[in-house]
Design a protein that fits this description.
By secondary structure, the protein is of the alpha+beta class. Helices cover 37% and strands 24% of the residues. The strands form two sheets. The chain has a four-stranded antiparallel sheet. It is elongated and about 55 Å long.
Length: 153
């Protein structure tokens, strides 16, 4: 994981106390980033600890807020969502609530809605079953915002 490798030393300040990540903690985060369902015994072997010691380290990382949760990677194509798109969203003015409400209502298509700086107001990451569903989404979206569409090939 690039983020972890870019720090030689990382100290977190939590609740008035400092918590320093060492190389073992960084390796644990890298391993969990690759497979969050890894058994603690196997994780320990990969980072040169016992299973219980690895579990204690993971617990400490969770308690200190370094690890906030675990997720899964879904193959959307196998679920019937073949069209993967990014949309730069442009909204005139400062009133974005209508757009945000629309996005909430269309959550089955939305992977991420990033508020951004630079070109545009939001970057919308979406999945659609096909181009017809995408087109219908765009027609409805255009009531709330302008956009630029990029489809991932």
């Amino acid at each position: 994981m690039v983020l972890i490798k870019c720090f030689d030393r990382l100290t977190l300040f939590l609740k008035g106390a400092s918590f320093e990540l060492d190389q073992t903690d960084k390796r644990i985060i890298e391993e969990l980033s690759q497979n969050s369902r890894i058994k603690m015994k196997e994780l320990g072997e990969r980072v040169h600890l016992t299973g219980p010691a690895a579990a204690a380290r993971v617990d400490k990382l969770e308690e200190n807020g370094v690890i906030e949760g675990y997720s899964i990677k879904v193959n959307h194509a196998k679920l019937g969502c073949y069209t993967y798109a990014f949309l730069n969203i442009y909204i005139e003015g400062t009133h974005h609530q209508a757009y945000l409400s629309f996005i909430q209502a269309k959550e089955e298509h939305i992977l991420n809605n990033y508020k951004i700086s630079g070109e545009g107001c939001y970057l919308l990451e979406c999945r659609f079953q096909n181009n017809e569903v995408l087109n219908q989404f765009l027609i409805e979206l255009n009531k709330y915002a302008n956009y630029k569409l990029s489809i991932v090939i």
